[in-house]
Amino acid sequence: MAELDLTANALADAKSNIRKLQEKVTDAILKMAAEVEKLATVVAPSQARAFLKAHCNLPTSELSTLAKFASTLKGSESVLKDARASFPVIKALVSVDEETRREVIERMELGAQLDARDIGAIRRKLAETA
């Protein structure tokens, strides 16, 4: 019985700690997106990209996602934060069409835990019914 208690406690601790870390990761992504948006209001997009790549070591793919955030996901920050959205999920969301993005956000609001593969499946399903 003691072994079951140890296992249960270890699982509960891992769940709690990992969820807290996921929240911190999502929060950091949202803060970086806000910083990129703020920078884009002050300097030209090409200058911002060059600066962020050279001085902040942001890879081009991440930079592209963060730059598109303001035009695609602005206003959805609380949903993304509550869902503990990972970078691959945010990347998938900025890349899909508006209808798919809206459907995914609605599902997240209802508590769905989705990954990038799920977002692709939703996009395909919506495209089939269109």
- What overall geometry do the principal axes of the alpha carbons give? globular
* Unreliable runs: none
- How many β-strand stretches? 0
Summarize the amount of helix as a percent range. over 70%
Report the biggest beta sheet as strand number plus sense, adding barrel if it closes: none
Structural class by SSE content: mainly alpha
Beta-strand share of residues: under 5%
For this structure, the quaternary state is: single chain
Mean pLDDT: 95
Distance between the termini: 55 Å
Helix count from the secondary structure assignment: 7
Element-level helix/strand string = HHHHHHH
What Rg is obtained from the alpha carbons, in whole angstroms? 18 Å
